[in-house]
TrEMBL record:
NCBIfam families, sorted: mevalon_kin
Protein species of origin: Streptomyces qinzhouensis
Keyword check for Transferase: yes
Chain intervals for the UniProt region annotation (Disordered): 1-40
Alphabetical keyword list: ATP-binding, Cytoplasm, Kinase, Lipid biosynthesis, Lipid metabolism, Magnesium, Nucleotide-binding, Transferase
Pathway entry: Isoprenoid biosynthesis; isopentenyl diphosphate biosynthesis via mevalonate pathway; isopentenyl diphosphate from (R)-mevalonate: step 1/3
Pfam families, sorted: GHMP_kinases_C, GHMP_kinases_N
Intracellular or extracellular location(s): Cytoplasm
E.C. code: 2.7.1.36
InterPro entries (alphabetical): GHMP_kinase_C_dom, GHMP_kinase_C_sf, GHMP_kinase_N_dom, GHMP_knse_ATP-bd_CS, Mev_gal_kin, Ribosomal_Su5_D2-typ_SF, Ribsml_uS5_D2-typ_fold_subgr
Protein name as catalogued: mevalonate kinase
PROSITE patterns documented for this protein: GHMP_KINASES_ATP
Length: 357
């Protein structure tokens, strides 16, 4: 707790040092379109997500189950810069925290394209150069939707700055455009789930809220090793190409497990849901998408009494997720750390049932 508080205070100090203008002082009135003068800083937020079932198969039409992870958030601030520019919507991006130089470079390229697309899709006029500060608490490359969350936060920060109302459909389209650039063919799960309030069923490009009949919680364990959705997808496709019918078998089995998991979640069959998680891990492991460290985390969670555990996200690193009864959470968390988890987060299902319809 003390370590987390220290990180939070450090990010706040960084943000304070990078504070964007809170008024139009320093920005020539003649350079700011009239519609922009009412607001000089816009704020946008998003959160992480975790996939329970359906990784990779969802892009082939199989269902996927995902949960929001509200404990991990991203906040973006967008404002007008006082520096000189050519008036064509230039943007500079600053990412706080410990992001690597390579990550910042990739993020800058993607967010610049996202900003250009925002202006095109919303019809907003260009103005002075933009400054965007992203304060992200979602570790990158862990299968938790960090890139989608950053994109969503930036999109809503721009909308707030410009006084534009965004529909969820337009927000999804903008974030999905960025996701396709970052990962190749993106399923749309991340673009949807990083703004959701409840667990979702995602199928054939459409999302709907999942009914919840189970209690308990999910513990997400960070292996400390970044994964790569794009590399994992390429590895999976290569495997499909070597074996006739492999793609159909993979997607068929994934669909069975996701549908069975959906029914178990709705019916309150916690053991049934857990067994589907573990079975799905075996499916991904057989496809070569797990790692020794992830396998060790899964084994440790099951040994500690979890009902089920698996890799979550694209694979080749990232996180494991374990379904656990509340009374087992402390022991499961302890053994996950002993098995190599560098950090863990608990996501209780109970927190979502108040939104049930």
């Amino acid at each position: 707790m003390r370590k987390d508080r220290g990180k939070t205070e450090e990010r706040q100090r960084e943000l304070s040092a990078l504070t964007l203008p809170t008024s139009s002082d320093g920005v020539s009135e003649s350079r700011v379109p009239k519609r922009h003068r009412a607001r000089s800083v816009g704020i946008g937020r998003a959160h992480a997500k975790a996939i329970l079932l359906g990784e990779h198969a969802v892009v082939h039409g199989a269902p996927a189950l995902a949960i929001p992870v509200p404990q991990l958030t991203v906040t973006a601030s967008a404002g007008w810069s006082s520096r000189a520019g050519d008036g064509r919507g230039e943007v500079s991006v600053t990412m706080t925290g410990s992001a690597s130089r390579a990550l910042v470079t990739r993020a800058f390229d993607g967010l610049r394209r996202l900003t250009e697309e925002f202006f095109v899709r919303t019809g907003a006029a260009g103005g002075p150069p933009l400054e965007v500060v992203v304060d992200g608490g979602i570790p990158h490359g862990r299968g938790l939707g960090s890139s989608a969350a950053v994109s969503r936060a930036v999109v809503f920060a721009l909308a707030d700055l410009l006084g534009r109302e965004l529909t969820e459909d337009l927000a999804f389209d903008l974030v999905q455009t960025a996701e396709n650039l970052a990962h190749g063919r993106a399923s749309g799960v991340d673009a949807t789930a990083v703004g959701a309030e409840r667990p979702l069923l995602f199928r054939a490009g459409r999302a709907e809220e999942l009914p919840i009949g189970c209690d308990g919680l999910f513990i997400i364990a960070d292996s400390g090793v970044p994964g790569s959705t794009k590399e994992a997808a390429e590895l999976l496709r290569a495997g499909f190409g070597r074996r006739a019918g492999a793609a159909e078998r993979f997607v068929g089995r994934a669909s069975e497990l996701a549908e069975a998991g959906r029914r178990a979640l709705a019916d309150g069959d916690a053991e049934g849901l857990g067994s589907r998680l573990t079975d799905y891990h075996e499916l991904l492991r057989a496809a070569g998408l797990s790692t020794e460290r992830i396998d060790a985390l899964v084994e440790a969670a099951l040994k500690a009494g979890s009902l089920g555990a698996k890799i979550t996200g694209g694979g080749l690193g990232g996180c494991a997720i374990a379904q656990t009864r509340p009374e087992q959470a402390r022991e499961v968390t302890r053994q996950l750390h002993e098995a190599g988890a560098v950090q863990t987060w608990a996501v209780p299902l109970k927190g979502f049932d108040s939104h049930a319809q």
